[in-house]
Design goal:
The complex is a heterodimer of chains A (about 325) and B (about 270). With about 325 residues, chain A is α+β, with helices and mostly antiparallel strands. Chain A folds into 2 domains: about 5-230, Rossmann fold, CATH 3.40.50; about 235-310, OB fold (Dihydrolipoamide Acetyltransferase, E2P), CATH 2.40.50.140. Chain A contains 10 helices and 17 strands. Chain A has helices spanning about 40-50, 70-75, 90-100, 105-120, 135-150, 165-180, 195-200, 215-220, 225-235, 290-300, and strands at about 5-10, 15-25, 30-35, 55-60, 65, 75-80, 155, 185-190, 200-205, 210-215, 235-240, 240-245, 250, 260-270, 275-280, 285-290, 305-310. Chain A has a 6-stranded mixed beta sheet, with helices on both faces. The two termini of chain A are about 20 Å apart. Chain B contains 15 helices and no strands. The longest helix of chain B is centred in the N-terminal third of the chain and has 34 residues, at about 40-75. Chain B has one domain (about 40-260): MetI-like (MetI-like fold, Orthogonal Bundle), CATH 1.10.3720.10. Chain B has helices at about 1-30, 30-40, 40-75, 80-85, 90-95, 95-105, 115-120, 130-140, 140-155, 155-165, 170-200, 200-205, 215-225, 230-260, 260-265. Classes of the chains: A alpha+beta (about 325), B mainly alpha (about 270).
Chain lengths: ~325, ~270
Amino acid sequence: MAIEATGITKHFGDFKALDDVAVHVPDGSLTALLGPSGSGKSTLLRVIAGLEEPDAGHVRFGDRDVTSVSAQDRGVGFVFQHYAAFKHMTVRDNVAFGLKIRKQPKDKIKARVEELLKLVHLTGWADRYPAQLSGGQRQRMALARALAVEPQVLLLDEPFGALDTRVREELRDWLRRLHDEVHVTTIFVTHDQQEAMEVAEQIVVVNEGRIEQAGAPAEVYEKPATPFVMEFVGPVTKLGERTVRPHDLQIVQEAQPGALEAMVERVVHLGFEVRAELLPTDGPALSVQLTRAEAEQLELREGEVVWVRAAYGPWAPEFRSSTKVA
Amino acid sequence: MRALRLTALLYLGALLVAPVGLIFYRTFERGVGAAWHSVTTPEAQHAFWLTLVLVVIAVPLNTVFGVATALLLERREFRGKSLLNSVIDLPFAISPVVVGLALILVYGRTGWFGDWFAEHGIRIIFSAPGMALATIFVCLPFVVREVQPVLREVGTEQEEAARTLGASPAQTFWRITLPAIRWGVGYGVVLSTARALGEFGAVAVVSGRISGVTETATLRVQERFEAFDPVGAYSASVVLALMGVAVLLFMNLLERRRKRPRAQTTTEGLA
């Protein structure tokens, strides 16, 4: 089920959380809403779920306009950052909740719950209470609960945000694989660009209530549409006036047209890569990312004078003038 | 540390244990028979019965109202919200005697609604309905104030999760919200009950204090005392105190159940 949001505007008092936002999520895709905190990404997800009512705009699931459909009838699976586990119910009853509400026959509920618990690796934990589970287990339970009702779309609000790094990476992988198996249209919200890059097929970058860019991870990284996207999705440095990625710079040992003269201030060895910090004769300090082999070949010495230039094509991506992307 | 404990014990002893203990002592000073006789007269029985009736009317009404109001204050935005929030505490702030007088002004024969009720043959003041109103008024804040912080702490995520899983607002309330706030509701009910049992001032003003008709247990204590019947007054006090103790024990039981970890009841047969 494709998701289409158009012209979404939402205020909280005087604060404009979303400003005429349009997003298209293809059927069966795994999309990340990426942005800093307070950018409006969670609000957008909640509008899609029907948990917030937009001041203006429409939400469509496939051909159906669901803008005025309540969350109750929208058929979405929603996973919260802090799990929203029903604390007074066992894991089994948590997962069965949506099926019981739908008055499914008991044996059918039982079979479905078993199947889901297996899917999320919680088979032995069915009779425990959420308080007895770890964060990662609770979040898997919440996922099983959301999937139980076979939602048309799965929405996850910073699903790994409250977990520690190792568990987070495990769950990321696992979500990725789950999506390959279940193939339900999925949107997840994150402020972690690496997480978005690793998990998503499509990334929608949100900032200050607007969409900055939507595209495949490689596209967003390599062809950022705005300076904000450029800075948010990867490392940047300044080459004169231009913003560039440190690995898109090249150091040469003699003057060239278009190359900037600079003194090597520091050389930092980071295992596979080497970071050279340069101080141009004119302009702000910059850093260049090289492979170890390149650094060895250049025999960079601190205090040495070198020239630095963009490694390919133009110095920096030409930003499209409009910030709005359909 | 030791001095502190001693001070606390002395304080409690002087203010609580000694007076209550003395009441028990005085009650049974002339034997259990006299005390028993005194609390089983028709008037005494009626007084206890009336107190219980008032509790049974006021507590459930205040529980329903209290939960609804707490939900309104914690889960909705509306005009006059902060006003409502402060008005809830009025029964704590206003002396019960004043509450009684105010009720007479509104519902009494010369009050706003007095004529209308009189024409329809309904008597509010100097009869049970007025006493029920007074009792409801004085124990109104308890459930609201106990449930509010619990609602705030529980947050809205569980309710939202239930909604996205297809639960209607009513289903969400019964299956998610109410179980989550049940301890708050329990404490509110216990406190309301204790307050309703012990209410004196407001009920005294609106009751007319007719022995055997509009006399509650607390009013009877006062009435017996003034009638130079100390055993009557003390023994009625003891019955009231026992009711109060029963309520407190119930509250203790609730607390113990709440603190019992879920783990103990559910770990059999699991790794």
